[in-house]
Fold each of these.
Amino acid sequence: MAIDNNTLVRLYRTMLTIRRFEERASKEYKKGSVPGLVHSYIGQEAVATGVCANLRKDDRIVSNHRGHGHLIAKGADIRRMMAEIYGKKSGYCKGKGGSMHIADFGIGILGANGIVAAGLPIATGAALAAHLEGKNRIAVVFFGDGACQEGEFQESLNLASIWKLPIIFACENNMYGVNTAATYAIAGGEIPRRAAAYDMPVKSVDGNDIEAVYETAKEVVTEVRAGGGPYFVEFKTYRWHGHFEADTIPDLRPVEEIEAWKKKCPIACLEQRLLKAGILTGQDIKKIDTQVMAMIEEAVTYAVESPLPAPEDALEDVYSA
Amino acid sequence: MRKIAYAQAALEALQEEFRRDDRIVHMATDIPIELREEFGEERVRATPISESVFVGAAIGLAGSGYRAIADIRMATFGFVAMDQMVNQAAKITYMFGGQARFPILIRMSIGAGMSMAAQHSISPYSMYMNIPGLKIILPATAYDVKGLLKSALRDNNPVISFEHSTLSTLIGEVPEEEYIVPLGRANIKKEGTDVTVVGLSRMVHEALAVAEEMAKQGISVEVIDPRTLVPLDRETIRNSVAKTGRLVVVDEACQTCSAASEIISLIVEDDNIFRRLKAPPRRVCGLDVPIPYSPPMERYVIPSRARISAAVRQVF
């Protein structure tokens, strides 16, 4: 293993935090404790974790509707995230955004975004800011295979390329846009070929292998930070849940396929390797899980106990002073 | 006072604010040469014809501490960037609970009158008035375009400037010294006592011409240019109509759900002013058709002085 033990344990803990957060958000959603929509990141934890572990606090990311994992991996406060999902005043957006619009500008999270591919132009602008600042910051935008058929995808890759901007296009190919298979929706089948056509380097890696994700991201981040221009990385992965937690859209994906991917759980895979290599014992694993669960519990308590916004708070924040 | 063209005044606004604030970045498919020469290609960037990405990049820049100008040229081209303007720029300050500012200036030309047909002629500002989170300016003179653009470039919100194509060569008085025109302050272009005519954009000038004609017939017309639609200076309009008891709104945009409709609503919803109305208010707007190409048809669908005069007479 090229990655040091401490880092591996850190990656494990982050992935597990995302998993437990999502399990709880899903549970609370199904119980009716939280309104709106929740798009689960379960199954894709390695991507956000491995990429963000290579970023500086002042690097900027733009996330998407399935964004909880990116936010946690970039260092967001899960109490304020949970409070936002609960629609509470103490949430990141004072209850005005909810699950799909959490942002924390203080740590470079320029927001999750509810419109597919809309984050790519914004991240391209963040990368332009990084270029103009000259502090070797970079921007990363997370999006799915579904976004690759949008015009904003094409425009952003093109502009980032001609301006040689410090941006990583992190494509999480989870094989479906809602229920529409990428194999059907993507002409030519291979997303990286499109990016290559915009004259930027591309990589495609197993998005469920945290070590591969981490190592790839490390190399790509280093290159982009050094001024190499945009980079496109496809992470092949899979979401375990349907498009969102509501049952208004049934999950039409083959059950065998879902089950097969569950066997490639990024967290279980790393756990096995950590145990096998003797980096962690079963006892250690249990301890980490207990700690993570306690954090999640604390976040839920914080959210539940926080006051709801006053109805007339709806009139604030339309404009900045 | 010196006189310069509207387009020159607009350019001066950008030049002065660029000198004042080195975090302003300009993006457009057609770069303003003077700006590029003075401030260089890093800050004055030529974009591909990709409105969505350069408007979106303006948002990303603004969210990263810069102040961005996206010049889309024609308002008709703006429609391809609607997601970034409406779903993103207008909403994200709010959706993120006010934690970040998005100082963005988007410029678009509007209007008919140059036989450019429907895909190069439109005045869609009322559509954007329906989107909370955007500010909207509608400069009608060289003086106002300079002063309003300067204000827009100091505002911490997305501001859209709708500038009528036919006004770019209009000559007007513009002082040499520094000034701004604050957003949300209407201008009483001509005081009068008998009827209030609110004109928008180029229609300010048409309303003034009609007011002059009317004066010869002994009708005293008060002409108001709101100058900004969001925020709208409701008080100045209300005070004027409270005084005259009569209102005509002249707006080149299509009549349905227009800014003119909104201005009339705010008057008739006001109990005090409603009681003082001497006649139902009237709209003089573009006809509800796409802008046609051939000059006689184009002239027909946009408000003429004859239609404005007729409407003014109707409120007596």
Note: DSSP finds twelve helices and seven strands in chain A.
Amino acid sequence: MIGADAIIKCLEEEGVKYVFGYPGVAICPFYNSILQSEIQTILIRTEQNAAHAASGMARITGKPGVCAVTSGPGATNVITGIATAFADSIPLVCITGQVHTDLLGSDSFQEADITGAVESFVKYSYLVKNVGDIPRIFKEAFHIANTGRRGPVLIDIPIDIQNAPISRFQYPEEVNMRTYKPTVKGHAVQIKKVIKELEKAKRPIICVGGGVLLSQAREELRGFVEKYRIPVVSTMMGIGVMPTEHPLYFGMVGNHGKAYANRAMNESDLLIMAGARVADRAVSQPDLITKNKVLVHIDVDPAEIGKNAGPTIPLVGDVKHIFQDFAKEEFTCEHEEWIRTLSEYRENLVAKRNPNPAYVDPAAFITRLSEKMAPDGVYVADVGQNQIWSCSYHIVKEGRFLTSGGMGTMGYSIPAAMGAKLADKSRQVIAVCGDGSFQMSMMELATMRQYSVPVKIIVLKNGYLGMVREYQHYTYKDNYSVVDLSGSPMLDKIAAAYDMQYQLLENMDRAEEVLDAFLKEDTSVLLECLIDPMDLVK
Amino acid sequence: MRKRIYSVLVENRSGVLGKVAGLFARRCFNIDSLTVGETDDPEISCMTIVSSGDERTIEQIEKQLNKKLDVIKVKTFDETQSISRELMLVKVRHNKGNRREITEICEILRAEIVDMSKHFMMIQICDTPERTKLLLTMLQSISIAEVARTGTLALAKCSENDD
């Protein structure tokens, strides 16, 4: 047995089913050993997307996604994908090949100091120097990636270590790290304090973030808010914690969120942030959420608490454990008046749009699409105007809404949708992107074709990098700079080239039949929707 | 702005200093001084970092340090709660006219002359950061050729419930 065989055994021990990656000489021992395994390899078309695909998979399975790339440019290409996962706390284990140990530090061919380069985007990284360390390092890496505040872990393995003989393989039963013991259970005293505040509160609200989904606490949270009738708003990453049309759900907050959601948060007298990090896009003025109200901040990462807003009651722990503990408390509270007020806001504070009937109205289209989607379908939004429209108009039932919220990485949707589809082939998976973001990951249509991954793709085409165009419209009075996408390819020909079905929707007239045909079978279809180039999200 | 001393026990592995220093750079935290050395356990190093900032920054530094997986323990304290020392070597140019003044300054500030040549003298001081700075200020008016300082080393004051 050599190091590479040991790595594969570690992945098998962790129950890994797929490895996304791109080979090169420095990772060849690994890709040779994996042939002996049941683990399926997916040859992605650029390394960044290996991390995105692993991220899509991780978000559906709840286990770390795995990618493996070569040294030098392979490793540096994957950085954006790792940083995207880090910003959204998605668990990944990323394996990079490295040059021979003797050549390390000599600027040899395809050598990059990848552990140094990714330091600020990983939860932890390893450079393997002894083949005997492989089992321990992999055990630790999977543990670190998927406990506490989840995130990517990188393991850099020189080619000679992959080829070195390993005398005895034993996968450790448990992890023993003196420096890593995340607090999962909430402090009992703090929990009691929160319950006391809930009893007193006249206008309580819970703002849910991506942490609720990461800790798989959707059921616990819903059960609690339904029992005590507590209204809920969400951040972008928290979309899908509550069904969009749930009577207690009052939308996404933030500068691209719903006016009624922001108003609800600002007027509350008790705000519980659960697994949300009070980032600038969700809370542009942190002082507003501490003024005239009790702020409870629940997060598994103690450093997030107090980073952007000082809470009245900090509560460190995993959201799932904490809501399980909340559920053990019995108390009474009454805020029907508050719910009525919020429901009125939801009725009345609706942004008015004036859609151009010559084009597809993204708002009406996305709403109709989500109504027709399978109830447990996975909607993957890309980045740009399409993301904001998706956040605003997609109706989540029991499915998932995936997007790159923290980093805002264009091109995320197609590879992430592939990962999500492979994670659960029974589910309908739809990637919604713009014509800019589509072209950033267009090469993955080949991957979809090669491995028969029936992801459905919608391109909202407006011929512009719309989000930047909109910014230039407001900030530079329509002085457009580098946002014109007029050289884009004909998408019908792209679809044909990759042997995909293609549909075109020019305006809303044929929306019903086109959507029905688009969703009918579990096949990959490329649906091009023509959007008014001047359409705005605001 | 408040000064704060962080005594950080870390795994004695390659790259750890870079990770900790990088954290300060990335999050725009100040480093007034940073010293590293092995502890009595060769697997553990101790970093003494002197930083400054408002209340929130001071708290964030501690939390972010604790988040690093190579960090074993972070102790933090104000100057009043700790004994801190800095070692400094100063090389000065001397001549007939200033030699007496230099020796007097050294005597008053309990600094030691540890080396000497025809034109240069090396002075050593090991004292609190304030007194070390004071010596430097006093010598500045004479003629400094070179300075080397360790940065602040600090430990919390002894108490009966030390762990």
Note: The mean pLDDT of chain A is 96.
